[in-house]
Amino acid sequence: MYQQNSDVSPWGQPPDYVLKEAKNTTKFFKCIGSVSQEESGQVFISRRSAYQALTEEEYEARELKKPSVGKEYFSHMDLEDIVNKYPYRKNLPEEDMVKERLTRLALIDFLRGLVEFDPAKRWSPLQASKHPFVTGEPFRCPYEPAPETPRMPCLADLLVFLSKSNADSSVVICDWLWLALDLFDLG
């Protein structure tokens, strides 16, 4: 879906290193500069983005169709403004108002962790499930999730990999492994 304003989304524009690697960047953005310049072994990164969102006209010219523009549900485009400017309940006591503000801060932090553009920095479901917004524990900004143990490939992953291979030897190995799993009731 095409985002018609230059703010791109409530989460802002993805960083250049993410846009550079994304497969559909050219569908929605144009490159207006260099991401970095190398000079005597040092890399200098510009403060301005090397990418700019396409206008509706540019999108239409590239894609040969009119962009489908989504409905705007909020008058604000920034995530913090959307959450913080949402009206409080009427006649809310001051003590509850303070709790609500803290809950909203936790919500913003939680959402930012879920929608992080960089997959390496984005929280896993397990990490997100331990966020104070979910657990109800006191929120201390910002939440730093514990790193997860990297996933180790298991025998089943190896079998899937080998079964997709065209080599005759991998088929034989795969057959033997499946047989071993069946014999020991591990499959």
Automatic annotation (TrEMBL):
Keyword ATP-binding: yes
MF term (GO), any: ATP binding
Record keyword Transferase present: yes
Keywords: ATP-binding, Kinase, Nucleotide-binding, Serine/threonine-protein kinase, Transferase
Cross-referenced SUPFAM superfamilies: Protein kinase-like (PK-like)
Database matches in InterPro entries: Kinase-like_dom_sf, Ser_Thr_dual-spec_kinase
Highest taxon above the source species: Eukaryota
PANTHER family found in the cross-reference section: DUAL SPECIFICITY PROTEIN KINASE, HOMEODOMAIN INTERACTING PROTEIN KINASE, ISOFORM D
Protein name according to UniProt: Uncharacterized protein
Species whose genome carries this gene: Ilex paraguariensis
